[in-house]
Amino acid sequence: MRPFLVSLLLFVAISPLAKADPVISEFCASNQNGLEDEDDDRPDWVEIHNPDSVSADLTNWYLTDNASEKNKWRFPAVTIAPGGYLVVFASGKDRRVTGQPLHTNFSLSADGEFLGLVRPNGSTVVSQYNPSFPAQFPDISYGLPSNVSPVTFFTESAAAQWTVPTSATVPGTSWIQRNFIPGAGWTSANLGLGFDTNTTAVDYNPQIGANGNTRTAMVNAANRSCYVRIPFNVPAGMSIAGLKLRVKYDDGFIAWLNGQPLLSGNTQVRRNCPNPVQWNSQATGTQPVDADSLIFTDFDVTESKGLIVTGQNILAIQAMNVNATSSDFLIRPEFAGEEFAAGDPLPAAYFSTPTPGARNSGSSGVVIPQEVTFSRQSGTFTGNFNLTLGGAISGQQIRYTTDGSTPTASSLLYSSPVPVAASARIRARIVSTTTGALGFIGARHYELIDTTIANYDANGAFRSCLPIVVINNFGGGDTGEAKQDCRVQLYDRDVSGFASLATNSVPIINLRAAVNRRGRSSSGFPKRSWNIEFQDESGAGKDVEVLGMPADEDWALVGCYDFDRAFMRNQWIYEVSRQAGRWAPRTRLVEVVFNQNGNALSFDPANNNANNDYRGVYVLIENIRRGSDRVDVANMEPSETTLPGVSGGFIFKVDQPEADEFQWRTQRNNPAGADALVIHRPKLADLATQQSSYLVNYFQSFENAVYTEASAGFTTRTYRNYIDSEAWADHNIFSMVSKNVDALRLSAYYHKDRAGKMAAGPLWDFDRSVNSTDGRDNETNTWHGTGDGTNYFLFAWWSQLFQDIEFRQLYVDRWQKLRDGPLATSNVNSILDGYLAQFRPADTNNPAKRDYARWYGSATSNNITTETAVMKNWLSSRSTWIDSQFATRPGILPAAGPVTAGQTVTFTVPPGSTVFYTLDGSDPRAEGGGTSASALQYTGTPVVVSATTKVTARAQRSGSFAVPATNWSGPVEALYLVNESYASAANLRVSAINYHPLDPDDAEALAMPEAEGGDFEWIELKNVSAGAVNLQNVSFGEGSPASALTLPAFTLAPGARAVVAKNVQAFTLRYGAAAAARIVGLWTGDGGLDNAGEAISVLDRNGAVIAEFNYDDEDDWPERADGDGSALEYVALGNLTSDYENPLNWKSSVAVHGDPGITSAPALSGVVINEILANTVTPQGDAIELRNNGPAPVNLGGWFLSHSADPEYGEDLKTYRIPDNTVLPAGGYLLIGEAAFSPNGEMSLDGHRGGSLWLVSADPANGKFRNFEDAPEWTPVLPGIAYGRFPDGSGEFTPLASYTPSQANSAARVGPVQITEIHYHPAGVTPEFVEISNTGSAVEDLGRWTLRGDVDFDFPVGFTIAPAEAIVLVAFDPVLQGSQATSFRNQYGVPAGVRLVGPWSAADTLGNTGGEVRLRRLVPPPEEEPAYVGLMVEDEVNYLASTPWPSTASGTGSSIRRVGVRKWGSNPLAWTAGAPGPGSGVGGYSAWRIATITSPAGGPNEDADRDGLDNFVEYLLGSDPNSFTALSSAIDPNNGSPRFVLNYSVRKDRDDGTLSAFQSGALNQWTPATHDELISTSGATELRRAWLPLGSRGFLRLEAYEAP
After folding, report:
1. Which residues pair with 1530 in a beta bridge?
2. Which among 292, 1064, 1160, 1577 has most CB atoms closer than 10 A?
3. 239-252: per-residue pLDDT in tens?
4. How many domains does the chain have?
5. Same domain, 1172 and 1122
């Protein structure tokens, strides 16, 4: 909605004190591949910059995306350092915890919308994009460019001096100082410095400048350190905005500037440098890949700009080699920055490189939001063609490159079509010829194919039944460890079932990518495997959804060379793991063509031919990374060094470490050999010391526990506190069943989520398994492989775990459970057959044959069908053998399900076994291996089922069995339902959702320090049928709300409820043991219910939908459930998505925190906050009045009052505790003064700004909350005006006509400026309007007043309305649209003197069936903030088109018009229907006086015509105040009963006063006349007669009173 007189152009508005005020300096409204939050999501973000020289306190400030809701999201206690930045995620997650990442309760619209930063008063906007920011683009930010220009202090070839120190004193420590003068032993050279004696892989020599070879000096001095000084000059007057050090290095270094440490992120710039550093230190590590040393590593060192001086400066670097035998060494720095430029601030613009949390780019970083158009899509071609580029407009050029480099303003100028004759990557962008600004980079990849591809076979061009990946490194040759800049195209299958490289095929992916060789032993295979990192055109990582797999930037192309000729050994076990609920990488089969020679893409069937770009069949695999779609653990920030953040999430492994990974071994030297425990994520550069120490200590505690308890015979099992035992068992089973010979000791991954246990997995690298060509994995009937294949039961910690009979039994249980599902032979065969079918094995030239011909000599050297059959047979045989090693499970008959009472149950007993069973769902096996006390031995007698029963049975065999077997089988279960039904859409509802709980209160935080608000989330299910319902196998879909979850057997009686919770400990703390007993399931992983709304999916045991919907936190969804202490409760009966997604079918819970599972809080008491005084006039004080609307007294002792604007914690609702034994009688009032609830100002009621009040009932003994008894809100009010309920006790909170403490409230205040006519549903095309009239006696200044509701309008400053004036608000602009104004006046007969005002907000209309029109007046600001704009309700109309409102005004051509001036605007009796008369106004004494009285004596108590009747009396009589009026009095014979009569008239439409007859016997006391009769009614006038009987002395008079 648009405010009055807005500019038609976008502007960024900053208050006059902009130098001191924070500003919205940058935001990103389409963050696809940029900044991640702590959940690994990429939400929108907003950056706030403090440009001032002192800290900016943003506590209780607001961010909003709605100009009409300026207090939409409130900052917690947070400050921004001088010149600093604060990034707030606009995610909708609504997180406001000081010291943690901040998230608003809204997201930004990429289509453009308002964005503002608002002072704590909730109205003063200090920085805004108004009326809306322009459309936004993926990964492009928008904001205020820095007025800076680039500067280079020295280049990578600059002059320098260097020396190799020979002792601690030569040259000593002063060499880093600016005034040090290099003498003997120092060499003048040009950068870079170093040497390279082995140039086989990467040659550093071209990087070495004149006199820069340091090898001889370093060898002679036997020192791995080299001192380097680079001088540079800074001219006088330069104002430095930023500094950047760029370094190419191998292997380590540390830097100083003018003798002081050069800082980045408050840490001295260093890489692979010991601490402390000595004169002869050597690097602590190496570059992971030599080629990385040729790429600049950048350091933002702006924080050290204060060290720069005018004149000569010195950058000093101590460079270090890793050891004396190293063949190479390099140091080559470059120092640059930006300086502030003179001139006006630059207008808001787009940035190609977002800089959240840092200074924005200058004009050089501004991007034009345009992209070049290409006349041809990416793809293949056979003949030369001309490429046409377009998209530039006047004042713009197109610049392009053909070598893959980034196009700049100096690149090739496009002037005519570009000829394309060879494989090419054309990159182009638009350049402004006036500002130099650059547009988005567009790119196309055209792959020239020769006849071996173009005419591959009789079908034409090369095609495949698998997707085809085309990679081109444009002559880069064979890949190595170094990443190559490549283009990747992906061609998917069309409706024919084939992907094709024909020239008319369009790739579904055409992206830049960094590609390098992957693997250790496999890196030497002739069939390479590769890592692929998808990138955007700037070179930043880009998340991409590939072939239906969730978006990410990192992928692996695994060649499956030699060992896995079925291409399935990784795929099948990953799929089994996922089916078992353990995430493993998703996979896709593809064929790969890799052009490495720069020639046309070719397919040469001759093996090992250099021109053969065909690489064969590959498996495209997700890499192991953190993320909600991959390993679902929390994303740790380096700053998270205390609990709970320091506790996760980690991904670690047993493997050989990479150079960028932290490694360690335990105190028992586990794991032995060349491998180590390695933290895979976070990488070393992002890993805080406290984080690595936490995991090292945590793992050591586990190891200590399991070894100690094993040696003690496992009399205790505290090791379970550290590991997810079931996940560890599954991981070992997957390794064992496939006989992965490298399992557990290589590529063996683990993960630990925040505040969670260590889980084994995900699986990785199973190529040497399942009877591969490795040879160690051939036998099916042994536990582990031959030779040095891993012994799954003896390796490291596993050896101790398998000494525990309980872990062994878990292993047996899990194996037999998995054999029922994921590892069932039929399921495994189905998985493998599915992969086989993708190859179309019956085709004479299928992908497998092509691969075999390429790598094994001929297409018939192997057979994909045979390879698959080998795997199937081997796995079937092995699984059968494993089955035989364990005790066989008994059978149960009949099958589980609904049965009648009296059903008999029997068991099949495995040979040599005894069957034990229970009927209460407990385990018949006791811990330790014995028989449970509740177990019964089956003797052949059938078991009779008379009520719903869960039967659990195991078979026990005698004897001793080797690891991992035990005496017991796994359990079998059968649930027999008697008079119960399985849950379904007909009988089960999602009844409540606690998606945004309050954060832990003090007691909860003390009991559970790691708890966060999200730990208290839950979903409630309710049985809505008349019969019992069982929840067995009800499931929540993946991601709804977190990981997939299947519920166990759980009976719900009619009306009963059950809970699925996030954290059982947190839930129990808040709701108690009785509610916790209703928990039927817990979801796992770091995910949870999204504060901004998300999908919920509940399925029955057969997979049919029970409930599937999205909840939300905006529009009409209940507000208090969004973080203010309530749960969201479903109050409807329907089970359709449309039912659940109707926000009117939900309400905020009355119970604080909700009432999950059971009803523990009592019903509402009936006590309400009835009246408040918040804007006082001396000697008044703030006051709160409570009223008991209930039928019985209520003890309020221990209840709480709070004025928290936005509660985050329970304590926020406990500002004032009502004293014990405060009893409020039925119908009674309790007035609580400011001295009681706010003796020290802790709960001052703000009448200038408005606020909220909470009345919360609680248990006086322990302070536990019960209900939100009341929670009214109030707006600013005029001084002395009370806010309260009208009607008394039950109505809405509104300004009142008068303050009535401790008694019934007065009527609602009706202001002098009123909404007097509404034409809401015109007939035909006649326009709508709203009439506003001034019924008072003074001119009213409407400047900054607003109209809100169905239509919005803001009155401009200086707008006034005279007494008795009526103005008409319309939807059009009467000034700019004069013809429309003339038509309006003609249609309605509006006089020229009546002002038409508009337009109200575009597209706004008055509701046809009902609506709201609310007029708000400006309230004087608080003294301490004179610029504050506070608005109170002046008049409000909530009308309906049906009775009791005048119903004839809807669609008939009539409007509704105000009757009188003292009735409340939402009172139907205040309105009548009739012909529209915009501008005719309404009555009232002031309007009557102005229109009628000609004498200056126009006051209500004056008598203009001197007839003895005051003007106000004549107004009520309806008589003429300008001529003498005599009251009609006489003696009436009255048929023999004479009487003295006074006849008078009363205008009933004049409700601002009352007129009635009074009588007196002696003129000293007057009472209402005993006899006052209605004679007749004519229109709005009543004729009345007051009389006294003759025979006694008496007097009659008329009295008039002004209505309140």
Report:
1. 1541
2. 292
3. 998 899 999 999 99
4. 8
5. no
